[in-house]
Write the structure tokens for this entry.
Amino acid sequence: MTENFDEMLFSGKIYNPENPALLKEQGEAARLMYEYNATRADQGEQRAALLPKLLAECGESCYIEAPFYANWGGHHVHFGDHVYANFHLTLVDDGEIFVGSHTMFGPNVTLVTAAHPVLPELREKGYQYNLPVHIGQNCWFGANVTVLPGVTIGDNSVIGAGSVVTKDIPANVVAVDTPCRVMREIGERDRQYYRGMQIDPALLKKVEKE
């Protein structure tokens, strides 16, 4: 990508995305996404070979269920290791998206980097701006979560299903609602119970040894 396009996409400044050269590059970047989405569930090896070509960075053992959708085909998306996404992950990756290792996405999660100015005169002409999304390690996103431009989510945090995340969320918390807010910290009780049911102590010992 040219330095000029980097300035347009990653600076946070307002720009017009209807640049013919930019649109051509975007179309080429998205081409492999359609190839990925045409694969079947039993074609795991083919998906594993395509995913690193789609993403800006792809760690070990990452997997996205098909279909998924991305404005730039994942071209501006950075995955750590062991990232998993369920069906219909949508990445508005005009700007950059960073996802830490061991993070999981439920179905229909949307991560958005692009936005449009509120001023009607600018929106009428199609102007937009992009702000990066940063997601920490070992996070879990429930179904139908939406993360808006410029948001950072800390390590280990859980975002409840249906939440719309408009502001930063710290590490080690459970956050829910629209707009998303911190409900509580992840604590010692979470080592003993899940949904009111007890975690087998033997399982915890096994996990700690791994």
About this structure: The longest strand covers residues 181-185. Helices lie at 3-10, 20-37, 44-54, 120-124, 201-209.
